[in-house]
Specification:
This protein is an alpha+beta fold. Helix content is 36%, strand content 19%. The mean pLDDT is 97. Bound molecules: flavin-adenine dinucleotide.
Length: 500
């Protein structure tokens, strides 16, 4: 058998995607399997946003073997228990999409089905009362889960907010120590094989040249290799996710760091608020067909917690994804492979997923199309599933106050989402299909939070008597409240464990 393995890998781009990929490949493949080079251009820079995550990032951190306290400290980060949605279902209404589950399932039936049964008759308070994440967020509390038997304190699920620039630096240090070579410079030319079209090398402005067997395109929206050279094509989802710009600005004001991301619906989109140790990240995601940049700027600046720390800057994008994420000997990861929008902080997760799936379908130099096709199919399905979850937030609204919300309320949605909505409207049931990222709890949280009202409740939620159901829900509510009260303030937890 000849040794046909990949001997050299070039990663194009040094943003979050590039350095996450470099770190993971260096960790998993070790120093001797292949030479890994990362090229980035200081002159071009990175997108500079992308600061909220979901709990799956813990898997990535564990895989790298990094210290969580060190990671939070070095990235001036904070902890995240979920997302607070303000004014989405209707103006004046707020809900929380927590990580983790509500309550505990009973007799094999989901907790939220029992809650629905009581809530529809006015016999239970709002669902947040049964989520340790939602309750702790309300109290501004945080701690990591502890081993406490059935207590909600054993089930705390969390993610992070971090400074994107510091995160890339943190990972760069990790990757370089693990053997990755960094090359600074602007790529001006991509050289392809005359017949096969495979990428052979990239050329830099300074005359340098990097050859490799496998190229990973982490060049951001540029899609320098996957689109520029290999013409993958783009699937445009603007009709479902019409936002096409974001205006971002950091501000001061971090006395009491809230342990959650806030998303506030605005006239033609929504505004994020991401609290870090040294600043708050803010941005208004919008559709330029419905509002001017000037109006966005005015709203954004009028809704900051503190002084702006920079000039607001506009980032333009088209929601959707590359027709193929992997073409020939090039795999696109990060914004180079597509972007939906940051509503549920899923982009960094998609980077993680791209890396994990690349590793589990890792090629040799024959680049078997079977592996490539499989990779493309799985990533596309995953992207579509996330898209549907995001579209739900826009579609399921009572807002009629602006043309943007009229468009969203009336737009056609993908079939799979239409079915999920129809099922929920009938019985309040939600399902996680196959391996989709968002589970039934998340679908339930957003459908309920967006004020969708089922015709009735899941009939199997009558396995327990009404009295027994009420009694168990009361116990759970008390345990959740007591646990949240027991937790330290988020700021104190950071000060004690991971202050920058
Ligand atoms: C408004 C907005 C908000 C977001 N919020 C979130 C969030 O809260 N959570 C989340 O998970 N994701 C979020 N994202 C997505 C997230 O920012 C990205 O997934 C993440 O930053 C990865 O970006 P990237 O590394 O792919 O691209 P970039 O950061 O753009 O990096 C591209 C790299 O390629 C290099 N490069 C490009 N062209 C060349 C060239 N010719 N030569 C050499 N180098 C080159 C650049 O120098 C840079 O190093 C958000 C995105 C946007 C637009």
């Amino acid at each position: 058998m000849t040794d046909n393995r990949i001997r050299s890998i070039a990663i194009v781009g040094g943003g979050t995607a590039g350095w996450m990929t470099a770190s993971a490949l260096a960790k998993v493949l070790g120093r001797d399997y292949a030479k890994i080079t990362l090229v980035e251009s200081d002159a071009i820079g990175t997108v500079g946003v992308g600061e909220a995550t979901i709990p799956q990032i813990n898997i990535f951190n564990r895989m790298l073997g990094i210290s969580e306290n060190d990671f939070v400290c070095r990235t001036k980060g904070s902890f995240k228990l979920g997302i607070q949605f303000v004014d989405w279902g209707r103006k004046g209404h707020t809900y929380f999409h927590p990580f983790g589950k509500y309550g505990v399932d009973m007799e094999g039936v989901s907790f939220h089905a029992y809650w629905q049964r009581l809530y529809q008759d006015g016999l239970a308070p709002w669902i947040d009362e049964y989520s340790i994440q939602a309750k702790a967020a309300e109290f501004g509390k945080f701690m990591r889960p502890i081993d406490a038997g059935n207590s909600p304190l054993s089930q705390i699920s969390y993610a992070f907010h971090f400074d994107a620039g510091l995160y890339a630096l943190f990972l760069r240090e990790y990757a370089e120590a693990a053997g990755v070579t960094r090359r600074e410079g602007k790529i001006t030319r991509v050289l392809q094989h005359g017949e096969s079209g495979f990428i052979e090398a990239v050329e830099l402005e300074d005359g340098g040249r990097i050859e490799a067997d496998l190229f990973i395109d982490c060049s951001g929206f540029h899609g320098l290799l996957i689109e520029g050279a290999l013409k993958s094509g783009y699937v445009d989802w603007s009709k479902y996710l019409p936002a096409n710009r974001a205006m971002a600005v950091p501000c001061s004001g971090v006395e009491d760091i809230t342990p959650y991301t806030r998303s506030t619906a605005r006239d033609a989109g929504w505004q994020w608020r991401i609290p870090l140790q040294h600043r708050i990240g803010n941005g208004y995601v919008y559709c330029s067909d419905f509002i001017s940049d000037e109006a966005v700027r005015e709203t954004l600046l009028a809704n900051l917690d503190g002084e702006p720390l920079a000039e607001p800057r506009i980032i333009k994008f088209t929601t959707g994804h590359r027709k193929k994420h992997w073409v020939k000997n090039c795999v696109a990861i990060g914004l180079a492979s597509g972007f939906m929008e940051p509503l549920e902080s899923t982009s960094i997760w998609m980077i993680q997923s791209g890396i994990a799936r690349l590793l589990s379908n890792f090629p040799d130099r024959s680049f078997n199309p079977v592996d490539i096709d499989r990779y493309n199919r799985v990533i596309t399905t995953e992207t579509e599933e996330i898209r549907d979850f995001l579209v739900l937030h826009y579609k399921a609204t009572e807002r009629t106050d602006t043309p943007f919300w009229d468009y969203c309320r009336n737009m056609e949605v993908p079939d799979r989402l239409a079915e999920k909505i129809a099922v929920f409207e009938n019985s309040g049931r939600c399902f996680r299909e196959n391996e989709e990222l968002f589970n039934d709890t998340s679908w339930f949280a957003v459908m309920t939070g967006q004020l969708m009202k089922p015709r009735t409740f899941d009939p199997v939620a009558q396995l327990l008597s009404l009295e027994e159901t009420q009694s168990r829900l009361n116990q759970i509510q008390t345990a959740v409240t007591n646990s949240a009260e027991y937790m330290p303030k988020h700021r104190d937890f950071i000060n004690d464990h991971c202050a920058a």
